[in-house]
Amino acid sequence: MSEDSKCEVCQNPAEHRCGSCHDAHYCCKEHQKIDWKNHKRNCRPFKVHSNDILGRHIKATKGINPGDIILQENPLIWGPAQTTVPVCLGCCRAINENNSKPCSKCGWPMCSSLCEKAPCHIPECRYTVLRGDKISIRNFGITHPSYSCITVLRILYQKQFLPEIWKKIKQLQSHHEERKGTQKYEQERLQIAQFILKFFKLDGVFSEEEIMRVCGIVTVNSHEVPLTEPHHIAIYDKTSMFEHNCRANCSKTFSSHGGIIITAGTRIKKGDNLSICYTDPLWGTANRRHHLKESKFFWCHCSRCLDPTESGTFFSALRCQDSNCKGYLLPKTFIDNTTNDKGFDWYCDKCPSILSSYSVQDLLDRIGKDLSEMPKGDIRECKSFINTYEELLHPNHFYLIDVKLALLQLIGNVNDVNELKEIDDEDLELNLKLCQNLIALVRNLVPGEKRIRGLLLFKLHAAVAEAGRRKASPDIVYASLMEAKKILQEAVDLLKHEPIELVEGKLYKQAVANLKELELVIQTIHMAMGDIASPM
Ligand SMILES: C[S@@+](CC[C@H](N)C(=O)[O-])C[C@H]1O[C@@H](n2cnc3c(N)ncnc32)[C@H](O)[C@@H]1O
């Protein structure tokens, strides 16, 4: 018990604390019971810790089941991304000269009078009014530099007028010293800090150093929120404490109103660190690690980065170049904490072959170039890329997975089961195989990830149902539909927190509808098969 722990109910010295969040203190069990109704709204199954490597981070204070909501919170601050076309500063959606009107006070173009009055618009509106001249935005549809300062300005406003929010924001990591001297730092100094000081005439109110620290806080802590087009960014309080892991045990999504929802992606034990993935989990190890170093200023040492085989998936592996060998090449480690790209040699797991890091890089660059130049949306191109490069890469290699996912979208680009009726048996078989292989890979590589797996399971249920439908025997049809139902139920569970604004949210809605339809069909077949008892 700390010296000043006081009972939430009577303010007397407290000996007990909430076993879940460890935040609320009580003098006795009786008072803890009395306070539960009140406390349960704030009680969370984790506690913030701190150490030299991670800074602040979060540990579970009790066991958490997959799918459980761990945290839901609204942003401390939100605003346009740093690089953006002109957007309405009330709702952050793209605008043009025809669907916007300048704010009557400050001149920033807004999409409606409602947005003009939005509380989030107050900071830039006030600072623009105070400078004495309205702003005039004339170029729409292209990146506009004036917008890069808005989110930073909104944070600075908290410092001046809303100290409670500022207190939370200023504690966030900025990596200010490490950022100094980088190209991005210099660009932001000119484009954001100098713009704020000169255009808004705020010299004397804020210093350049202070503005640059805020720029660092935005870089390190903001989340891209894909609910608007273009996406906007937001900073959350407790969510900012979640550490990164390339095989994270938590998964994030957003509510329709821009709140963030963190759910458990895997079973979590009391005392486990809670993590989300700051980068694209379907990038190769070298790319993920460099991206994290560049954007978040740390070298990742998670279990996935430490294991070159990435849980035995061989997600970054090349085929051995000896035509008689069936082995795969990988480096002994990817942990090269330098940016000089010298790298390590790659060794075959079956024969003594070695490939220099230079040759590997050259090969990967060539394949990457081919991939980026490949015409999009063409099934034949995807198949040909896979055929060509399965000769050189492990079938689970990230380049092939990228194209396999694209191919699956093309041949299985369906929102309901019936659309698969149009494809031939060969493509249906390919569709099934792709779904099964990709699901197995994702389950193993990133077990806490939900969106990709939910999407793949949705596709798989449609393919399984269609494959069953093509069989003559009612028994097989029935068994296939039962299997499709089980798969779809899993997709529904994974996608249930996705907002309707996102593809995954729409898919969830479709999955729920399909599930109902499937249940009816199964029931009808079951009855027709002569058994009246309900299968469900
Ligand atoms: C969003 S913040 C997380 C909260 C932060 N630790 C704090 O004290 O405010 C991101 C920063 O945390 C640190 N961090 C997060 N995950 C890490 C990891 N897996 N390894 C090392 N540092 C990490 C890095 O400094 C990173 O830039």
TrEMBL record:
PROSITE patterns: SET, ZF_MYND_1, ZF_MYND_2. SUPFAM superfamilies: HIT/MYND zinc finger-like, SET domain. Residues 7-43 form the MYND-type domain. CDD domains: SET_SMYD. The keyword Transport does not apply. One of its GO terms (molecular function) is N-methyltransferase activity. Keywords: Metal-binding, Zinc, Zinc-finger. Pfam families: SET, zf-MYND. Residues 44-279 form the SET domain. InterPro entries: SET_dom (IPR001214), SET_dom_sf (IPR046341), SET_SmydA-8 (IPR053010), Znf_MYND (IPR002893). This is Protein msta.
